[in-house]
Amino acid sequence: MKQRFTIIGGGLAGSFMAARLCQAGQEVTLIDDQEPQSASRVAAGLFNVITGRYGAKSWMADQLLEDIQAFFDIPVFQSLSKHVHYTPIYRAFKEEAEYNKWLGRSAEPAFRELVELVEQPLLPKQIINPHGGIMILPCGWLDIPALLRELHDILIDRWGLHIIHESVPFDHISLTNRNLWMNEAGLQSFDHLILCQGHHLTHCPWLPAGSIIPNKGEILILESDSLDLPFVLSKKIYMIPIGEGKFLSGSTYANQFEHAEPTFPAADEIMMYVDQAIHVPVRVLDHWAGIRPTTRNRRPIIGTHPVHPCLHVLGGFGTKGVLLAPFSSRLLTDVLLTGEDQIPEEARVERLF
Asked: What is the pTM of this model?
């Protein structure tokens, strides 16, 4: 039976959720305030299955990669795959101890298909990597703004997705009456409301305080006449080649910040690490900042509110929005439409209460 779904938040979480519900024949309204500092509009779109200071395998890495590929294999969404750039990530070792650690680890079953050990320096005239590194294979980056624009167009043209560009304060939402008020569109009713508002869930009155931890990240857009990378370089910061001698570089991580705008100290920090990663000069073309929605256990929030059955939450993706959006939206769609619940315990919304 067709139901009315209202999704608040038009970033990766909300847009993938809208895609799955539209494809299933549901009536979907997407409310997107197009906030310029949202993680989806500022993030470099990097997806990487070996992360953290110690190079741990990402949570559910194999399933997350499978869900990315499965979404873009859906015939109506195949054209979106041009925005997915599968590019290996070269993680340069900072010291010989890292080489010794990965010499054994790269042969372990958990890592064998994910990484290749690089025992000699790569591009030594360009990159500072005297100890070699590892090449992380099933990863890359996503042009998120371009993908979201095309995805929204597909959903509008094929299924009549209704998009409203407006901000909706939480006090304009009535879960009892299952409606919300917007200044431009007036009173809107729903059967189900899905919150995908990224870091704005910090202020959600139906979630416990501290459920979302805002984390500010800043990146630089760099240009170089002499840097030519056939991979993403990772050495404390990343450098993503986006074509025409340009690179996205970052990111900073700040849990304490005064505003969402770019800052000079963050730019200086990124450039300090760039200077420690490459030999060649670069120029700064632009500087972006955005707010990531993180959680205490670094797992997404997925599921139906334990008190309000019409309210659902999809968020808390942190730095892994590209990896988590296809997977998480599939799990929540299954719960809503079929009752099948395969949401991992550590990602369930109930854990917050």
From this structure: 0.95
